[in-house]
Every structure is written in C-alpha cells, then in structure tokens.
Amino acid sequence: MTAGSESVLELLPMVFADPGEALARARELLRAAPPPLHASVAHQVIGIWQRDFGDLRLALRHLRRARDLAARAGSAEREADVLATLGVALVHAGRTRQGLAAFDQGVARGTGHTRARVLYRRAYVWWVLGRHREALEDVRRAVPVLRQADDVIWTARALTLRATVHLALGAGLRADADFTAAQALWDTTGQEHDKADAVESRGLAAFRQGDIPAALRLLDEAEERYAKLGTPTFMLNIRRCEVLMAAGLAPEALAEADGAIAELDRLGGQSTRKAELLLVAARAARLAEDPRTAIARAAQAVRLFAGQRRAWWETHARLVLIEARAATGRRSGRLVADAAEVARRLAAFGSPAAPEASLLAGRIALALGRPEEAERHLAVASRSRAGGPPLARVTGWAAQALRARAAGSDRGVLEACRRGLDVLDDHRMTLGASELRARATAQGAELAALAQQAALASGEPRRLLAWSERWRATVLSAPPTRPPADPALLSGLTAFREIAARAEQARQDGHPVPALEREQRRLEREIRSRTLHLRGDAPGGGVRFDAGRLLRRLGDTRLVELAVVDGRVHVLLCGQGRVRRFAAGRLAEAVIEAEHVQAGLRRLAHPGAAARLPLVEAAGRRLEELLLGPAARHLGAGPLVVVPPGSLHRVPWALLPSLRERVVSVSPSASSWLRARETRPPRGGRQVLVRGPGLATGGAEVPELAGRYGAPTVLEGDAAHVSAVLRELDGAGLAHLAAHGAFRADSPLFSSLTMADGPLIVHDFERLARSPYRIILSCCDTARFASVGADELLGLVTALLPLGTAGVVACSAPVNDEAVVPLMLALHKGLGAGLSLAEALRDARAALPGDATHQATGWAFSAFGAA
C-alpha cells in the first residue's frame, strides 16, 4: 500500500467513530475519480453506512462495486476485507447461503491479520444465525492474531463479540471478563460508535446477571451516545425491550418494538433485524396478555428466520408462537409434541430458554389429563431451579410446584412456591423504583395462585390468609429507595411542573397545546427513566407476615381479607383469636357491580340526580352479597378493616348496608395495616393546611380549620408551591390538602395534586424523609389506583403508606365540591375530639344532610390505614 492508500483506509475505522463524517468523505473521494483501490474503500465505507444505518439494498450495491474494484486493483487482501463486509450485509438481507459463500471466499483470499478480521466478522454472522459454537471457534482463532498485530480496535470488537456469545450460552463470568477487557481497550480509542456499542453490551450483561436498574441505565447511556452520532439503534431497541419485559413493562416493550419495526421498514433496513424485532414484539404481546398479536408477530418471525436459515432464532420464535396459542385456550397433543420438540432443540443449542419450553409442554399435558407425560417435561424444567438468573430459577420452582400438585402433595406445592417466591423477593428488592418492584411481582403470580389453591384445599383458613398475604401489596412491606439528590432529576421535575402548568393554563384559555404536551411527555419519560435506574437497598422481602401477631394486635377490631382463588371471593374473617373462611361470589361479577356503583356516584355528584340514589343503594346491596356473602352476619359490632384485592380498591365500602354505620378502614394488605398500626406519630404533631388553586369552593374549609387549630401552617395562593408544600409536609402530624387531584391510569406515579406552580406528583412524595402521620385529601380521585403486577397498587395513597403515613382519608370518585366542605369540617371535629380517621369519617357522614348529593359524597370517601 502507498502512503495515500493508508490515508484512504483511515475512512474504514471512521465509519464507527464518526459515521456522518466518514460518509461525507467517501462521497467526496468518489467525486474525484480515484484509482480502483481507493474507490473500493470509498464504496465499502458507503456500503457499511447504508448496511447499518440506512437502506440495505443500496448497501449491497455499493459493496458489490467495492468487491469488483478490489479485484480490478489486484489486491487480494482488499478483496478479502470487502467480501467479509459483503457477507455480513447478505446475511442481514436474509441471503444466508450467499453470505456464507462470500465469507468462504474471504477466508481463502485473506492472510494473517486480514484473515483474522474476516474470521471475526464471520463469527458475528454465526452469532446472528444463532450458531454460537461456530461463532466461538472463529472468534477464538481471530483474537490472538489481532492482539499480536496490536490492532486495538478489532481486538476490542472481537472481545465484545465473544462476550456476547458467552452470554447467549449462559456463561456470565466469561462474558464479564471479556466485556471488561474490551472496555479498557475502547477507552484508548476514538471509536465513538464502537464505544456506544460497548456500553450497550454492558447493559446486556447487567440484564443477564439480573441487574435491571443497571441494565436500564447503561442502555439509556448508549442511546444518548448513538443520538449524538445520529445513528439508528435497532439492536438497542431489542435489548431494551427484553429488559422492559423482565421489569414487567410488556406493553411499553411492545410499543417500542412495533415502532422500531415501522422505522426499519421506512429505511429499507436489515431483514435480520426485522425478524428479531418481530420476535421481541411477539414476546411482549404475549406478556401483555394480547395472544392474537403475539401469534401474528411470532408467525411472521418464524417465516423470516426460516428463510434466513437461522435455526436458533426460528426455534425461539416457535416457542413464543406455541405459548401464545396455548394462551388462547388451545390444548392438544400436537401442541404438547411441538413444545417438547422446541425444548429439545433449545437444549441442543444450549439456550437458557429450554426450561420454559419444557414447562410449557408440561402445563399443556397436565391440562389434557396426561400426568405421566407432564411429569417427564416438568422434571426437565424443574432442574433450572438450582441456579442461573432469578427468573430462570422461578421457572424451575413453578415446574416443581406443578409436579407436586400432580402428585397430590399440597406440602410439596407450598414448599416449591415458598422457594420460588423467595427468589423473586430477593430479585425484587434489588429494584429501587416502587413501580418496578410492583410490576416484578407479576412473575410470581402463578406461584402465588398455586399456593392459594393448595392452602384452600387444606381446609385451614389461617394458611390461606398467610398465602394471600405472601404476594399481596408487597411493595408496601418495605420503604422505597429514596431518590438521590440528583440535580438532573430535580431539574427535570421542575421543568415538568412548569410545562404542565403552562399547558393547563393554555387549555383554560382555549389555546392549542400540542407542543407543550409533547414536551411534557418527553420530560415524563426522562423523569421516569432516571427513577427506574435506582437500585434497591438490600435483598429480602421485608418482615414476613405472622397471622398470630395480626390476631393479637386486632383486639376488638375485625379484619376482613378478601382472597380470590380460581375467580371466587373467599372472605377471611380475622378476630377474637381465630380466622374463619366464608365463600362469597365471583370476582368478575363484583368488579362489574363496582363499576356500576362508581358510575352512579359520578351522577349523584351533580344536582338533579337524586332519582339515581335507589339504584346506587341497590347496587351496594348486591356488592355486599358478592363480596361478603354470609360473613356479613358475623362481623360483630367493633371497628372493621377491609383488605380487598387490587381490582376492588375503588369499592365505596361505606355504601354496603352492613358497613354504613360502622367504623371502617381499608388497607392494601393485612401486613400494611399492621405496619400502620405500629407507626408512632411524630413529636410535636404539626398541622399543615394547603389550599391549591382553581377549586370551585376555593377550599372553603381551610380558613375555618386554620382558626380551629390555633397556629397551623397554612399554604395558599402563591405560597402553595411544590417545594414549600413538601418542606412543610415532611414529618408533620396532620396534613389537609385541598387541591385538585388527577389520577393517571397510564402512568400512576404521575398522578398529582395541583399546586400554585403546577402538579405535585407521586415522585415528589417519594422524596420525603417522612410523610405526614395523617393526611386528608379532600378532592376527587385521590384514592384511585392502578392495579399492576400480581396484586399491587400504584397511586397517591399507596405511595404515602410506606413513607411513614399511618392513615389517609381520600376519595375514589368525582364528588360535589360544595358537599365536601361540611364533610371535611365534621371530620376534623372528630379528630379534634381524639377520634381516629375511620371513626371521625363515620361520624362525619352521619352529620351530613340527608339529600342524595351529600350521601354520595360521604360514601365516596374512605379511610386507609390505621391512624
């Protein structure tokens, strides 16, 4: 090579350091009519750019031209290098046979250092095809030669690839060593795109090791690096979708995968990437309980992988296809055989997904009444409980629980469920974000259901209570990880609040707000992303539930926990030193009836709807029969705590006839009630009264309450801004917040109360060192929750309970603002007399006028906790 040739060859590493600049220089070089050797390099650079970031058809055109020019120049080494690049492009285009043939020619034409680079790229193709052992063989041959040549860039690439292959084979420690060595090499180069790829690969490694917060943080960092280079990120999309699914965020993963597929089609990009995106979209749809979409995506992925001769990938797609078909209720011997064959092939590939396929085959065989066949498959799947990532071990324990149930061993079922849920507890507590902790419980839903079925069959109500508590509202069993004093997060929260306030003002003024709404959504994504990066403080799932301790602490109080087993409500009545069980109605019917009640309360919030009152009361009677059944006659006369499943937390319990004149409080779990019961009020007992803007009554109760309490802290007008409100709420004894509430079903941790400078959101409350001992939220929708995971709740109230709040009064429906004022004044009168929140709320309802609007207002409010 001449000196001029050396300078032209510098364009090749530049395409991964500064892709845009490399593309521009290559095009400029071609305009100068260079000799064949130099033109070959320029066309190869353009081909690489188009292959990875643009139109694959154009990439093939340029790379074939580069190959022909290299041959005309008489450079075997140049020709071998281009053949390797062409081989990668052909495989990505789905022309696997042609691509492998190009590699064979490249290996034959190249020597020494050049051949090592060709072998590295063929190893990459083997990885794309799912042929991991061939990939390891080629990359192991390449690494020593590249190191001997002191080729830092290509050695780092080869080590990164080898680590990725190790991950696919489940060899996490080897992968970690290679990633670490590659990172040290990348730090000495200016290869910005390769550096971004290395960060992305470290994110994948963190995910494979079960560290979801680190994986999300690293993938977000990689995305920022790619964005600076202006390059698409389809492989990153795939990896982030995998992490999102493991975090319980399957709908988001599906949306991201489908968006990436649309963008890839627009660009005319790689067929191989499209197939991989279709596979991840199919998995996400299945986890999002959308089996029809899963079937459509998986079937398309199977066809593409088969045409690309990618057997490893095709087999994984077939697994998702069978899972989705089973989720639609299809059961057949053929489906068992298909799942078993997929399991066999995955095991032969060394895939960590093999136990999932064996578990699936076993499940279907059990449903068909084939216990011997099921035992064969479940025994294989159960081996994964011994080691590996947390979710793989959970798969193994689920298989073991099913084996025990088939063998008629309730004890074996409960032991397997306990061990599996313990694994998930440890995994869940590595997550710092309360949202991720809540959604991660979905992975244990099957184990929890199996345990509840076994506990019910045992005929021991106390055992059923313990297992109902084992996986209910677990997020509330331990305080969340406090967000760090992160300047970027605090800045994002401030910016979000300002934009949200501007958008709301513009809406009130009748102005269009699409630009403000886009910016608000962007800031929401940024805030949420930073909170999802939080790591948990310690392993373990918090204090274990003890039924004896609960019964001792109840005293004269009765606790009713509603357990749902196979769709039926079972009432567990706790008190007087024992637990009794009563069978009630079907959960699905109760949920429908609760929605009817909510619709009725919404109408009664407006004058002139009094004719609806008898209908709402009748619905309350039906709800009582469905939810309490015969237990309603055994509740006694003392205070009552109701612990409903997540799907029933919007029930206005005071509407039920047997509960109307009782002291009733609601708790997400018995454990949460115990925690609240044992929470001590802070010294001093400061009172804080907050009046937000835009209330129909102007928060009329606040001035009168200020006079009653003597010298409370009152924040209103411009003084009621978020930072001041948070400062005063921290450690207060009692807080009354009269402010508009907004529940966000799509993103419950952005549910808010409106302050002078914008929304006070759940993420803000999570920054408190200690939330107020008692909180009264006097406006609409403050007691609404999103039910996620196995049986978790996300919303304003559930954010406060683990932070030191022992009692909350909040509203589950829209209410009449004017009717709220006398209710609140009467409520505070009871608190001043030394009553608990639940006692004061009962008396406040009784003190209201008897018209329909005031009655509906009283029913809409509930007391949560134990203060």
Automatic annotation (TrEMBL):
Q: Per the UniProt entry, what species is this protein from, by scientific name?
A: Streptomyces mexicanus
| SUPFAM superfamilies associated with the record | TPR-like
Q: What is this protein called?
A: CHAT domain-containing protein
Instruction: Write out the coiled-coil annotation as residue ranges.
Output: none
- Entry-linked Pfam families: CHAT
CHAT domain residues are 618-863
